[in-house]
Amino acid sequence: MSIAVVGMLDEREDGLRLIIDTVRQKGHRPALIDISIGTGAIAAELKPQISCSEVARAGGSSIDAIRGMLAKEREKATAAMAQGLGNVLQELLDRSEMEGVIAVGGMTGTFITLSAMKRIPFGVPKLMISSVVAMPSYSKQLSEYLGVRDITVMHTVVDTVGLNPLVRTLMINGAGAICGMVEASKAPQKETKPSIAITEFGFCEKGAHYVRELLEEKYSMVSFHATGVGEKAACDLVGQELFEAFIDLVPGGFSEHLLGGNRAAGPDRLDAGIKAGKPYILTPCGFDMISCGPIQRRDQGDPLWVSRKLAERKLLVQDAIRVQARTSPEEVQTIAREVAKKLNEHPKKTLVKFVVPTKGFSSISVEGGALHDPACDRVFTDELKKNLDPQIEVIEVNSHINTPEFASAVVDALNKIL
Questions:
Q1: Is the CB of residue 156 less than 8 Å from the CB of residue 129?
Q2: How much of the chain exceeds pLDDT 90, in percent?
Q3: Of the candidates 83, 82, 99, 109, which has an alpha carbon nearest to the alpha carbon of residue 16?
Q4: SS3 letters for the chain?
Q5: What is Dmax (Cα atoms) for the chain?
Q6: What is the pTM of this model?
Q7: How many CB atoms are located within 10 Å of the residue 156 CB?
Q8: φ, ψ of residue 199 in degrees (nearest 5)
Q9: 20 to 30 Å CA-CA from 334: which of 113, 119, 202, 213?
Q10: What is the pLDDT of residues 276-302, one digit of tens each?
Q11: pLDDT-derived band at 241, boundaries 50, 70, 90
């Protein structure tokens, strides 16, 4: 078993050499993988176990073709290297030849490596030493990697070229960190209690608590904060078949995607729960609102606020940053149709249950809440039932989402199909 050491030899040979030496000194076997694409000026003396040519071939290209793309098709070139690196790392894992991976890079090296690391399963130690991960302009792109995978990042503060005292310290510390992670690492173990994933956020916090209380004696409950990125992480791990069931209390990231809200989790938000073929319980929490803060967008001609006329709606202004607008009847009809279309693709439809709290989808749409609109909630439920496959049961509960009664209905629905 080895620790994969990834980087561009033509840019960062000195740092990579120090990582390799340190890993070896600590009793581990390093395996150097070169991802050079011709942007650096170093004529490297260090010989990699896997060359950049091999990485390029693993990505369905050649190193000459990739270098030829750099001037006009740089994104295509780096995507091919990322694909190749991902394939190389996966093959090493499949052959039980890799127990962890450490990489060092600038902008290009970081994005090539993170794309590959994203494919490595949860629990396998992954460490990225990078000078760019703190750049605000790339936060959204970086969240696509760091938000859904257990990738540890060491922000270098300085650039990692050459081998000055600061870079030397970073490389030694990074090598020590990956060795320690490998020595202490333990893959997710099959517990005596099976695991269940559950999404939640503040507007259904009590309801989620009641559900966990009812299930935690028999199951290990793993909660995900449904704020867009947290939902993506949930779906990513559900897709790895780590859970016996998925209780999607807050699938609102899907409606946020449809409507353009802040918590958008993408068009494939519901896909993991469908493709897993496991018991899948959903509620409409989050479908009653659009996350549209900060509040100053209202007065700045913001496209979302203008196109959906949000200023004319019921609003919950939590603070200057967080604002929720009530969804309209037309919007919830669209949400219901699109949700039904997705759920109808489940290979075992009897394993899907949709549990609806008729007195409030969230804490802010109950009677007295800022977004209370029972008629609109009714529109959603009717449209959902009209479009869902008859094999998928819709269970209406005469309570709001944050009650023990609703939690019991969710658990009863789950127990029927487990």
A1: yes
A2: 77
A3: 109
A4: CEEEEEECHHHHHHHHHHHHHHHHHCCCCEEEEECCCCCCCCCCCCCCCECHHHHHHHCCCCHHHHHHHCCCCHHHHHHHHHHHHHHHHHHHHHCCCEEEEEEEECHHHHHHHHHHHCCCCCCCCEEEEECCCCCHHHHHHHHHHHCCCCCEEEECCCCCCCCCHHHHHHHHHHHHHHHHHHHHCCCCCCCCCCEEEEEECHHHHHHHHHHHHHHCCCCEEEEEECCCHHHHHHHHHHHCCCCCEEEECCCHHHHHHHHCCCCCCCCCCCHHHHHCCCCEEECCCCCCEEECCCHHHHHCCCHHHHHCCHHHCCEEECCCCCEEEECCHHHHHHHHHHHHHHHCCCCCHHHEEEEEECCCCCCCCCCCCCCCCHHHHHHHHHHHHHHCCCCCEEEEECCCCCCHHHHHHHHHHHHHHC
A5: 72
A6: 0.75
A7: 23
A8: -95, 145
A9: 202
A10: 999 999 999 999 999 999 999 999 999
A11: confident
d(C-alpha 104, C-alpha 113), whole Å = 9
Amino acid occupying residue 247: I
Q: Which two tokens stand for residue 173?
A: 């510390």
Read off the pLDDT band of 212 (50, 70, 90): very high
Tokens representing 326 are 């009530």
Q: How big is the chain by its Cα radius of gyration, in Å?
A: 24
Pairing mode, if any, of strands 195-200 and 352-357?
unpaired
Q: In what order do the strands lie in the sheet with 323-326?
A: 289-291, 323-326, 315-317
Residue 49 tokens, joined? 């176990």
Place of tokens 């867009």: 228
* Phi, psi dihedral angles at 144 (to 5 degrees): -65, -25
74-94 and 107-117 helices cross at what angle (nearest 10)?
40
